[in-house]
Write a structure and sequence with these properties.
Elements lengths: L1 E8 L8 E3 L1 E3 L12 E4 L5 E2 L11 E5 L4 E5 L8 E4 L4 H12 L4 E4 L16 E3 H10 L5 H8 L3 E4 L17 E5 L2 E10 L17 H11 L15 E10 L7 E3 L3 E4 L2
Parallel strand pairs: 10-11
Antiparallel strand pairs: 1-2, 1-11, 1-16, 3-15, 4-5, 4-9, 6-7, 7-8, 12-13, 12-16, 13-14
Pfam family, one: MOSC
GO molecular function: catalytic activity; molybdenum ion binding; pyridoxal phosphate binding
Protein name: MOSC domain-containing protein
Amino acid sequence: MWTLSRIAVYPIKSLDPVYLEQTEILPGGALSGDRQFALFDQADNVINAKKYPAIHRIRSQFDIANQTVTLSSTETSPEPLRFHLIEERTELENWLSVYFHQQVTLKENSESGFPDDLEAPGPTIISTQTYEELARWFPEITVDELRLRFRGNLEIAGDSPFCEDRLYSATDSQVLFQIGPITLAGSNPCKRCVVPSRHPITGAKDSDFMKTFIRKRKETFPAWAPIELFQNMYRLAVNTRLTRLPDKPSNIIRAGDLIQILP
């Protein structure tokens, strides 16, 4: 039996995570508070780590209850500064504009957030066993650092590396599963970009990371996994979508909830 062991949300897209003991699922399928805010450049394009490596060097601490964020970076002022995400948005945007050397706008979507996969905007899922296997591939990278590189939402205590790949199918039939009271459908293995190859604090890129990952993924690919969905092997974790939302307060998931694949 699998259990939910860790919940991570990223209140501002591409910045640091907040780890929670419980959270609610929004009607659109996202976790409450996850990617609720995103940064946009002067051309109104999203500022993310894929396009802006400098974002790795911003440290952020969130107080979700009080809607504040504390930012620091040695490239601007080493002294941390706290901003209210609503009441001090102009001051926050000014700090970010100085950092990125252009006008930055902070936008909010409290209903669905700003997911990467619009077809599967639910939480991404990965197992602790998978992170531990990756740490064997990359002995110089700890499991905690891998969490920051791959930025999954829900971490499960499973039974083997890549066991989360059982949560989707190459056929038209969806794989449905429950986490606590919530029913989700697995969509596809998550496509990866350049971000996991960078150090999550400094932004320094490891040019061999992707090649090593693809080689080891091929070598260890489970016989039962749907290889048809792997156009290349640079994929990790599971994208999901919500299929059924129970009435409040039953739309809350908690660390320790059981995960059950439905028939």
